[in-house]
Amino acid sequence: MSGIITDNLGRSSGLVKSAGGGTILKVKSVKFTGTASETGEAPSQLSDFDMSFAPTTSDGKLYFEAHMVCGTGGTTSVGLYFYDVTNTTIIGSYADAAGSRLRLSWRTAHHADAVAVSTSFGTWHEPGTTTSRDYTIFGNANYDSTLYINRALGNDDNASINNSNASSTFTITEYAASAVTLT
After folding, report:
1. Phi, psi of 51 (to 5 degrees)
2. Contact at 8 Å (CB) between 72 and 145?
3. What is the mean pLDDT of residues 79-98?
4. Which of 107, 127, 136 minimizes the C-alpha distance to 175?
5. Please, which of 44, 85, 99, 171 could form a disulfide with 134 given CB 3.0 to 4.6 Å?
6. What are phi and psi of 48, to 5 degrees?
7. pLDDT, tens digit, 9 for 90 and up, residues 122-176
């Protein structure tokens, strides 16, 4: 049987009408289920999210996405951004320059010892190459406080939700250039 499939008769015989597209070309993800911490006010490499990624086409568009659980001590904030380790460059959308302020992609505020907030962010990147690059997430907490990943400051070993642990992910999805228009 050949030709255009227009009804379910062709499908029931084992033929499948093409969905077309080929929009998503490649997906790679890091799932971090442990806990980690980082101290110091300047953003630092969160190495649990390190990932090498080689696009399949030189004109593909990469979508970076992170879903993280971040905790700190006291009343402080967390700031984060995606980073191209290979080319020492911040990836994607981040704040405009304004005085001596840090230029971050996303941030959140914390106001108690038991706070651990789910924070998510996504941004586009056009590497223009099929060469593999190393990517990661940079981040930290404010005022030399400690940034905790997948837990809160209070980390007592009990069944309280305040002391529970979580998981975080960092995903890169490559889309065909014809499927995404960035302006």
Report:
1. -150, 135
2. yes
3. 87
4. 127
5. 85
6. -70, -10
7. 999 999 999 999 999 999 888 778 888 988 887 778 877 777 888 999 999 999 9
Rg of the chain over Cα atoms, rounded to whole angstroms, equals 21
The C-alpha atoms of residue 134 and residue 50 are separated, in whole angstroms, by 7
Q: How far apart are CA 136 and CA 61, in angstroms?
A: 17
Nearest to 164 by CA among 148, 182, 150, 175: 150
- Dist CA 85 CA 111 (whole Å): 32
- Structure confidence at residue 1 (pLDDT): 46
Task: Provide the strand spans (E) within 97-149.
Answer: 106-111, 116-125, 133-141, 146-149
74 versus 125: the higher-pLDDT residue is 125
How far, in whole angstroms, is CA 135 from its chain's centroid? Answer: 10
Which residue shows structure tokens 């953003």? 43
Task: Give me 102's structure tokens.
Answer: 């840090």
Helix (H) or strand (E) segment spanning residue 12: helix 8-12
Q: Which amino acid is at 61?
A: K
- Block residue for tokens 């086409």: 57
